[in-house]
DNA sequence: TTGTCGGCCGATCGCCGACAA
DNA sequence: TTGTCGGCGATCGGCCGACAA
């Protein structure tokens, strides 16, 4: 999986430690994340935190849900090993430096509205996304319309009809959009990510509103009171 | 799973040895069935056949495909055990006797035609099935129509509209049929089984044309040459 | 008796501009 | 700028009898 698309899907809040950097491993947090909130680690037999070196990072995506995650291989640093006493939070500095030196390709994320997710509707493309991420549209045609191809995290290519129409004018994805919504089982509140790679290719990723595990969902389903007649 | 529905789905060719009867266990055949045609059992260390006693039989159905199968628990009979020298094929006789003494509820199987499996079509019910398996239809109504409920191997109830119409008259399942076909992923060549239990309830099972394992499929897909224009 | 076909009607899908937030 | 709505045309699902095998 392309690391840039991975980061675009994960969002700006997610930072990954570079390989060979040092991090602290928290067994308690790991156990809670894997098994749920109620855990019993044998007190005194497992240290609260373990200084480790990042041996490998693999960027992955769930085959079914497209949700991105990472597998990080950690190797514990022994106390007698050189560098053990050094401040471990140099990992953060290294991560920040590593992130800054990487190219940040243009990407755009939008949370799906009811109209976007409803069947029978298209996708309302924010102007910024259409103008900076999508391929150039020939506005001289009437109506201005083009076919947009976007590759998802699995390399599958999706085809969308991109049209600029309506009064006032706005960018829309029509044909191909509902198929995408149904196949990916997207609902209002989920987010879609468009990213343009360096060679001009377009990628598409998704970010689910409901998340499993202890990373609580920022999105709660609000029940609208029915309009009084 | 109801043994009678199980037998109706498995077909008349399938006979199960009764519990406590004696059978021969063939390790070679078992290995081929489980792993494929190429196996290497350590010659001389595993006997070609083992006399066993049937300890338990469980009638089961695949949760996804509805295909029926059975789990048979075997306990080897030791050579010094009484009855070892007795002819083991008494199992067959016992099975036949056991099968005969069981009630044989009315059941009917039909292989789905193209018209049955095609979307937009209903199911053409053979007269015998409609008259002997289905609930009595009131022919005085116009048109004669009723709702038929049938329980599948998982206990899920399916609802069909059963109508007697057309010239010449014939029995058809219309509303509800295509949903059943889609949910069960039925295609032309698969078979459907209807069975009426002693208390009058209707059951429905399916028999797939394509079978996994070494039990070769009797049904081969024949490509029809397109009609000349 | 029953498999297949064309007709036909209603439901749904999905594209559209009109608004208004 | 863009979210939601009603309209409406095209498509599809699915029920029907006609006909023939």
UniProtKB/TrEMBL annotation, chains A, B:
Residues included from the entire protein: 20 to 248 of 712
What is the name attached to this protein's record?
A: Auxin response factor
| Job of this protein | Auxin response factors (ARFs) are transcriptional factors that bind specifically to the DNA sequence 5'-TGTCTC-3' found in the auxin-responsive promoter elements (AuxREs).
Protein family (similarity comment): Belongs to the ARF family.
Pinpoint the TF-B3 domain residues: 108-210
Instruction: Please list which residues make up the signal peptide.
Output: none
UniProt source species? Miscanthus lutarioriparius
Where in the cell? Nucleus
Q: How does it assemble?
A: Homodimers and heterodimers.
